[in-house]
């Protein structure tokens, strides 16, 4: 299995996913901050984690190889994305058939470091994704929303994407 940790930062999730996917799997640690992933690269090498691949993306594009990812995770960082429509549009080609995107975030306004679930679903659907599961997490750590990507050839033209209105 190949997992993309979008917004990997210092690698909290990457370092834990590496042993789970095993030697035959891959964890793509993606971030737009090169200094974060440089430190993560050193730590992965120190631990001998040969299945970690460092990817420096841009705010609009995770720069993942086409059809390379089974699961992508965005943990407590979706609310930080400058242009979610562009990022999601550019993420879709990296997902393999049957791929899924999981988002963990807090149910609060984006200016308060959260992503209201209705806005999240609207933004994903605007790019052709479909929510397949939603669960509130125990302990006040937010929610998990899981999306399937648009089918090949079914992504809307970027000019046709309708921007969602933030609540409140």
Set out the fold topology.
Layout: E1 2-6, H1 12-21, E2 26-31, H2 34-47, E3 52-56, E4 69-75, H3 84-91, E5 95-105, H4 117-126, E6 130-136, E7 143-148
Parallel strand pairs: 1-2, 1-4, 2-3, 4-5
Antiparallel strand pairs: 5-7, 6-7
Walkthrough of the structure:
With 168 residues, this protein is of the alpha/beta class. The protein has one domain: 3-Layer(aba) Sandwich (Rossmann fold). Strands 3-2-1-4-5-7-6 form a seven-stranded mixed beta sheet, with helices on both faces. It is globular and about 45 Å long. The mean pLDDT is 95.
Radius of gyration: 15 Å
Mean pLDDT: 95
By secondary-structure content and strand pairing, the structural class works out as alpha/beta
Number of strands: 7
Helical proportion? 25-40%
Which stretches are low in confidence, meaning pLDDT under 50 for 5 or more residues running?
none
The profile of the biggest β sheet is: 7 strands, mixed
What is the CATH first-level class name? Alpha Beta
Tell me the CATH architecture. Answer: 3-Layer(aba) Sandwich
Query: What is the H-and-E element order?
Result: EHEHEEHEHEE
